[in-house]
Design goal:
Bound molecules: iron/sulfur cluster
CATH topology of the largest domain: TATA-Binding Protein
Number of helices: 6
Low-confidence stretches: none
Structural class: alpha+beta
């Protein structure tokens, strides 16, 4: 038997600390959860293993899509959106712990990747824009503007409407998503 066989799992606990309605989809929830340790050392390995992961090495975040769900890993926490319900949240947590522990066990055989290997999808962004299609950003629709943000052709600040008080919650979530994905956010919102 090797030391690895009897080694304790890298992550044992991921505890839900907050459940709130999902701004991107009113029929779903989002949740925050806390790891029992800093897991950021495994991000470059997950970035290699997972399809469509968005890794921000300097920001120490990794965003994963799982069947429509959007899951952002920070060093000690997770933020997940578009989750069906609390039962689904627990399934996502079990999946994440298993994924991280398996990746940690196999890390000697995985070449870590420190690059951002994918971009956010338009659908991830548009649901957090104001949705009025007011054209003040010089685009015909919020969808068109979201496509330009995803492709890093415009700054999110081209949408002045997102700064309105009524869009505060969407703005917070959108900026957190963009920041985690390695997109540039003005200093004042950093
Ligand atoms: S300014 Fe903002 S709310 Fe108006 S169309 Fe552009 S993205 Fe949508």
């Amino acid at each position: 038997m090797t030391g690895t066989d009897s080694a304790p799992p890298f992550v044992k606990l991921l505890t839900i600390i907050k459940v709130i309605p999902c701004l991107a989809d009113p029929n779903k929830i989002r949740f925050s959860a806390e790891f029992d340790r800093d897991v950021s050392e495994i991000f470059p390995y997950l970035n290699t293993v997972l399809q469509g992961a968005i890794y921000n090495h300097s920001g120490r975040t990794l965003t994963i899509r799982k069947e429509g769900r959007l899951i952002t890993l920070y060093p000690a926490t997770v933020s997940a959106a578009k989750i069906d319900d609390v039962h689904d949240a627990h399934e996502v947590i079990s999946w994440l712990i298993k994924l991280i522990n398996e990746c940690h066990l196999k890390r000697a055989t995985i070449k870590p990747s420190f690059e951002r290997r994918d971009c956010l999808q338009v659908i991830d962004i548009v649901r957090l824009l104001p949705g009025t299609n007011c054209k003040k950003c010089d685009q015909p629709t919020c969808l068109a503007f979201a496509a330009l943000i995803a492709a890093e052709k415009v700054s999110v600040m081209g949408c002045g409407e997102i700064l309105l008080a009524e869009n505060q919650e969407k703005r917070k979530e959108l900026f957190a998503l963009l920041r985690a994905g390695g997109y540039s956010i003005p200093e004042a919102f950093g």
